[in-house]
Write a structure and sequence with these properties.
With 77 residues, the chain is α/β, with parallel strands linked by helices. It is 40% helix and 13% strand. The protein has a single domain, classed as Response regulator (Rossmann fold, 3-Layer(aba) Sandwich). Helix 1 packs parallel to helix 2. The longest helix is centred in the first third of the chain and has 11 residues.
Length: 77
């Protein structure tokens, strides 16, 4: 198991570790979760990437899935 401090760190660690699962927050510093997932997808294509967020909207889910997420978990307000 590994943790990343921000989106840039998440991309680097995903490349190094090649994990089966990457749970990523959409609101990461330095590189947001959606952009980080795009980069992770190219470096670790077999990793499943579900997003988590306090954001709950159809736009969020559509953007996440379009960018390689295999699921999205949002906190309904």
């Amino acid at each position: 198991m590994s943790e990343a401090a921000d989106g840039v760190d998440a991309v680097e660690k995903a490349h190094e570790v090649q994990p089966d699962l990457i749970l990523i927050d959409i609101a990461l510093p330095r590189l947001n979760g959606i952009d980080a997932a795009k980069q992770v997808r190219s470096r670790s294509p077999e990793s499943a990437i579900p997003f988590v967020s306090v954001e709950h909207s159809d736009d969020f889910v559509e953007a996440a899935l379009a960018d390689g997420a295999r699921g999205a978990i949002a906190n309904p307000k």
